Amino acid sequence: MRMKSWVETANGPDTDFPLQNLPYGVFSTGGGAPRCGVAIGDRIVDLAACEQAGLLDADGSFSAPQLNDFMALGRARWAQIREALTALLAEDGNRDTPTVAMADATLHLPIKVTEFTDFYASKNHAFNVGVLFRGPENALPAQWTHMPIGYNGRASSVVVSGTDVIRPMGQLRGDDGPVWSACKRLDLELELGAIVGVPSEMGQRVSVEEAEEMIFGYVLLNDWSARDIQAWEYQPLGPFQAKAFATTISPWVVTQAALEPFRSEGATRDNPLLPYLQEKRPGLYDIDLAWSLNGQVLARTNYTTMYYSSAQQLAHHTESGCPMRVGDLLGSGTISGPTPDSTGALLEMTQGGKSPIQTDSGERSFLLDGDQVGLHGHAQGDGFRIGFGPCLGTILPAKE
Amino acid sequence: MRMKSWVETANGPDTDFPLQNLPYGVFSTGGGAPRCGVAIGDRIVDLAACEQAGLLDADGSFSAPQLNDFMALGRARWAQIREALTALLAEDGNRDTPTVAMADATLHLPIKVTEFTDFYASKNHAFNVGVLFRGPENALPAQWTHMPIGYNGRASSVVVSGTDVIRPMGQLRGDDGPVWSACKRLDLELELGAIVGVPSEMGQRVSVEEAEEMIFGYVLLNDWSARDIQAWEYQPLGPFQAKAFATTISPWVVTQAALEPFRSEGATRDNPLLPYLQEKRPGLYDIDLAWSLNGQVLARTNYTTMYYSSAQQLAHHTESGCPMRVGDLLGSGTISGPTPDSTGALLEMTQGGKSPIQTDSGERSFLLDGDQVGLHGHAQGDGFRIGFGPCLGTILPAKE
């Protein structure tokens, strides 16, 4: 069943933004103030203007330069606004709804990232990387099949698609002690990011079902990684500067509501999970994912290859009583399939750089200056798709 | 040289808050709005009221419920306000300066913690813990003497002294796979926290000298740790839920200006540091530290036992281009001397629980429900001391 919009470009089978999607973002036009919007075809609904015109009621939160105020209104209001927007934009809706051409808009970081937590929940990825860092016998940590392993990332360096990424400097392992150098093994990581819209209290443990109710939506997330900095620094307390220089997210937050029809089972479990991590219904979504180098797609995978869902990760995040806040960003972990052409990072695809790949841009072990990486994702419906829009970043030379 | 105040309780040799200190905090009285204050003897200068009365000029930032707005005004304004406060509170100052009795005030979290990063910079602590977790041959990681190892902590669970700490639940290693249990090895960590008051840009690497200029002040910091949760979860990506349930800081931020006379050399270096970490002058302070269990001091140490200063840690934090923000909190890492009675954690003092200690409250390997831990610290001047006030937390039973 396709739903048609009076915005004609929303009705094709290949648009990322049909009427069924309605992802949220933050945009500005002509140097004006950033405000909240929703993508539809090749246009953006100006939610702030809609609110001012009395077409929507979100307590003024759409005039903010990020979605946090709107997310904080809670699930009931999210559903109301989705329903109202669907009515306004449907074929028989209100053609006076204020929109701007996406081509005329600048897209900004859609949320104020309160804190950023990154997980490690693809078994293919965890095994592949584990082999490279610790050898095949220690590849998968003992607790891996029992809990979604996560670590705190850095929120201040989360940027929106299109922001250039400066190759980081750092300490690398050398023959006679460390050397100070530009990163030589710069990598991408293809991930989904879940955005928390409903907070939890300190000391409150949330169930997987409650956690799912806290998630507002999802973005594509590129967790850029400096593999040589990481190898030297990461034991025993985890990655630090190797991942602190930039994390890129897509500008449109695809809501859980839009993804609901694509709910899907994940991988078979090696062992039963402890009760607090058990799901009553499938928690993943059937989302086709890909990443490209300078426009050439080099790998394709699917979100259903993951071992843990974002709801399980969020439940685990609160197991100790850790409070979650509006704007918390949870990276899924690199999403890799079982084969080299389905890996979400060059580290895996090139076997730690030992097997360079041939691309239309030449041979690559890791990323070169000037390379543009794109992440792409959509859930395929019947005659329409729920897309994320691209998540792009270009590597600039290090500032030595 | 002692400086006298018209606030008589500020003039004794044992007060934490003489005229030379003037630490900043946030307080409220009688259920009123939290606002900024400065401790002097047994009283608090009401900075918001001072500003309203025209005695101080801080652009209204003292009426905020945290110090971030004031910190964001920058070093020149910090110096101006310190000079003005010193004049107002000196023996010949203005006795109409609005103050409240500390006994009548509620103290709040002094800053909005933007992000929390914890380091691992005491060689004694790193070695002692390394032996317990990985054995003596792998105790000190190879990069330890070359860089201040750090990891991102969780900001949302940073609480002010006096907040009760609920014993966390979590996954523990069991004989037949993990078990879900209350933490059985609950520990403290005695640390100092440095607070960033001047931000840095993305892609900007700051030198150690520049980093020092970015630090507003210091607090005592108890990085509560669930050692059994930590042991099961922490490889390969570092501590997560084991430290996410609570981190307690003292309510008063002792400024770098007040600590300046106590600047001091640290430990001898095992090897030269890379240039970006080298200090032009000593970056530690001679601060006597102690921790107590139910009022009984169990260990004493000094901040000069550290291998890396907060300025070095902050410089390292920006080496990849990671931007720092007003309100970033940097934990020093556990501060341990070389002997059991100078260790900053029970893990070290009891050899991982194998050698319980006798205390006035009975035998302890780790913390019991009802235990109150206090951190204490001051720099000793000639006839006065620059104190932090206590940093207290009491353990409540787990919510199973």
UniProtKB/TrEMBL annotation, chains A, B:
Annotated ranges, domain Fumarylacetoacetase N-terminal: 20-110
Domain Fumarylacetoacetase-like C-terminal as annotated: residue spans: 116-377
Pathway: Amino-acid degradation; L-phenylalanine degradation; acetoacetate and fumarate from L-phenylalanine: step 6/6
Binding positions for Mg(2+) per the UniProt entry: D223, K243, T247
Amino-acid positions noted as binding Ca(2+) in the UniProt annotation, renumbered to this chain: D118, E189, E191, D223
Active site residues according to the UniProt entry: H125 (proton acceptor)
Name recorded for this polypeptide: fumarylacetoacetase
